[in-house]
């Protein structure tokens, strides 16, 4: 029985889907204005494990994830510069180029981490769904939840009494806590943009310039991403895409909604407000949130300058799959602190697992006792850390035959996605020249010709191999 911690109810609930054998799940995806750092990637790995787990439990999983390629402003209050446009300006490219480049890199990173991304159309771009977002705003407008300011169409959170439920704050408290800047035309600090105007009052660039004689065209940058709408030229507010696309691809309500903990107080409250007010039913039944990856106790984030990418890890000889193993070492609702030492330890552990399973014989039947224990841990709110503990017990259990270990681990690997399947029972292939040198060294050693033996050991090392001697035999290992 799968149990999941539901942020909304603040309890661990038994999971059951809306329809019998299908689970519909939505994950807030990346904003593609920079390369994802390994903090961003933590959530995508854990939700990948959840998806694999649901499949192993017999469900068909329909998983949608958005690619935010537009209109995500630098702060939650709909103020500041658009991240995509800022990045484009800094790199001398267009916003479209930036989005394309980083979407591609995100897909590569996901593949290297063994994350099974949804296939298009379920992997859906905000810019491909402008019409759906406009429709959502129109539906909200018709029902009286919106108001217009000089810079866009806003959602009036005071009209939605349930606003704040996800974060556990009553509406009055939420409203009182969010200050309205003096310059803002927002009615409440928690109100948010559904549609932003490119130029004041939804004017076209020409009309705006014509209405402002002191403004020169050269002082007014053109937006690379903007669309006509019933309210004038502009672009969607950044929460609209998730409500519009999840409805389109999963229906409403759907089963599971995932994201980082930072999404709870604003982004997800706003998604809920939009979707519930527009369509009159809940958005999702289960809300799951992953904690942050930290460095020296601080959130890994671009603004603190403490981010690393998979490329940085690669230059420290840490593989993406070792990072995946590292993530699994902590429960997803706990902060996880990144250090190079712990990353190296994860790489060593993965290497050790690989070399152990190479020696095993081909899988036969699984050990049900171990399997029950592993599944109980992973089904307990995705407790990957305890599941890994069971895995190591199995690996080190000398009372089990290796084909049984192999079968059991293979099944678990479909959930953990550590890529171990390809190593099970596949002895390391030793090139003929390496084998020949090793044989010569073994002979020299047997003849107590230590100089020759040492020279040949060095030769092997230069080829990337280590030779380990026992009394009667030798073993070759790849140098790390
Ligand atoms: P963004 O691209 O900024 O929208 O972030 C993408 C996802 O990464 C969001 O779900 C954030 O919650 C998440 N995120 C950002 N920083 C971290 C971090 N240090 N650890 C874990 N998740 C993070
Ligand atoms: Zn979202």
Poorly predicted tracts of residues: none
**Regarding quaternary structure, how should these chains be classified?**
single chain
Terminal residue distance: 41 Å
Bin the helical content.
40-55%
The top-level CATH class of the largest domain is Alpha Beta
- Named at the architecture level, the CATH assignment of the largest domain is 3-Layer(aba) Sandwich
Compute the number of strand runs: 16
The CATH superfamily of the largest domain appears as: HUPs
- What's the pLDDT, averaged over the residues? 94
Bound molecules: adenosine monophosphate, zinc ion
Q: Mind describing the biggest β-sheet?
A: 5 strands, parallel
Question: Structural class of the helices, strands and pairings?
Answer: alpha/beta
Largest sheet: spatial strand order = 5-4-3-10-11
Task: Give the tally of structural domains.
Answer: 4
Q: Give the overall silhouette.
A: elongated
Describe the protein in words.
The protein has 480 residues and is an alpha/beta fold. The chain has 4 domains: 3-121 and 242-294, HUPs (Rossmann fold), CATH 3.40.50; 131-238, Rossmann fold (3-Layer(aba) Sandwich); 295-422, Isoleucyl-tRNA Synthetase, Domain 1; 432-478, no CATH class. It has helices spanning 38-56, 83-91, 95-112, 130-142, 171-177, 205-211, 240-250, 264-279, 310-315, 320-328, 340-358, 368-378, 384-396, 402-416, 432-446, 450-462; strands spanning 3-6, 11-14, 22-27, 60-67, 123-125, 146-149, 152-155, 192-197, 234-236, 254-260, 284-290, 293-295, 298-299, 336-337, 465-469, 474-478. A 5-stranded parallel sheet has the order 5-4-3-10-11, sandwiched between helices. It has a 4-stranded antiparallel sheet with strand order 6-7-8-9, covered by helices on one side. Strand 10, helix 8 and strand 11 form a beta-alpha-beta unit. It is elongated, with a radius of gyration of 27 Å. The structure holds adenosine monophosphate and zinc ion (ZN). Adenosine monophosphate (AMP) binds at residues 28, 30-31, 39-40, 42-43, 259-260, 262-263, 292-293, 299-301. Zinc ion (ZN) is lined by residues 28, 242, 267, 271.
């Amino acid at each position: 029985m799968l149990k999941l911690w539901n942020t909304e109810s603040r309890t661990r609930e038994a999971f059951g889907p809306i329809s019998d054998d299908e689970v519909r799940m939505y994950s807030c995806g990346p904003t593609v204005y920079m390369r994802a750092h390994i903090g961003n990637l933590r959530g995508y790995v854990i939700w990948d494990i959840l998806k694999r787990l649901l499949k192993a439990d017999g469900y068909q999983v329909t998983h949608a994830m958005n690619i935010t390629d537009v209109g995500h402003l630098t702060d939650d209050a709909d103020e500041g510069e658009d991240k995509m446009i800022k990045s484009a300006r800094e790199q001398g490219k267009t916003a479209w180029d930036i989005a394309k480049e980083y979407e591609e890199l995100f897909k590569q990173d996901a593949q290297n981490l063994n994350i099974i991304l949804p296939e298009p159309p379920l992997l859906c771009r905000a810019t491909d769904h402008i019409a759906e977002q406009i429709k959502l705003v129109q539906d909200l407008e018709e029902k009286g939840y919106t108001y217009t300011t000089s810079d866009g169409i806003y959602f009036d959170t005071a009209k939605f009494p349930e606003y704040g439920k996800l974060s556990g704050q009553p509406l009055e408290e939420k409203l009182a806590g969010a200050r309205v800047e003096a310059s803002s035309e927002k009615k409440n600090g928690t109100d948010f943009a559904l549609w932003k105007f490119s130029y004041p009052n939804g004017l076209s660039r020409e009309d705006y310039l014509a209405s402002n004689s002191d403004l020169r065209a050269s002082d007014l940058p053109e937006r690379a991403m903007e669309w006509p709408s019933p309210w004038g030229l502009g672009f969607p507010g950044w929460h609209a895409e998730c409500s519009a696309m999840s409805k389109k691809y999963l229906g409403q309500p759907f089963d599971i909604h995932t994201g980082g903990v930072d999404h709870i107080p604003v982004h997800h409250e706003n998604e809920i407000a939009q979707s519930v007010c527009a369509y009159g039913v809940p958005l999702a039944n289960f809300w799951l949130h992953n904690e942050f990856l930290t460095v020296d106790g601080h959130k890994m984030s671009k603004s603190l300058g403490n981010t690393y990418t998979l490329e940085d890890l690669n230059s420290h000889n840490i593989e993406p799959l070792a990072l995946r193993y590292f993530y699994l070492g902590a429960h997803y609702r706990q902060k996880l602190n990144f250090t190079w030492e712990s990353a190296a330890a994860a790489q060593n552990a993965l290497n050790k697992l690989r070399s152990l399973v190479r020696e095993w014989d081909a899988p036969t039947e699984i050990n049900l006792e171990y399997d029950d224990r592993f599944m109980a841990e992973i089904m307990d709110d995705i407790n990957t850390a305890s599941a890994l503990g069971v895995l190591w017990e199995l690996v080190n259990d000398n009372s089990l035959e290796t084909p049984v270990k192999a079968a059991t681990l293979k099944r678990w690997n479909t959930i953990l996605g550590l890529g171990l399947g390809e190593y099970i029972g596949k002895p390391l292939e030793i090139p003929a020249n390496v084998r020949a040198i090793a044989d010569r060294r073994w002979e020299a050693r047997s003849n107590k010709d230590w100089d020759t033996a040492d020279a040949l050991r060095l030769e092997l090392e230069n080829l990337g191999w280590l030779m380990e001697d026992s009394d009667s035999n030798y073993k070759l290992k790849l140098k790390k």
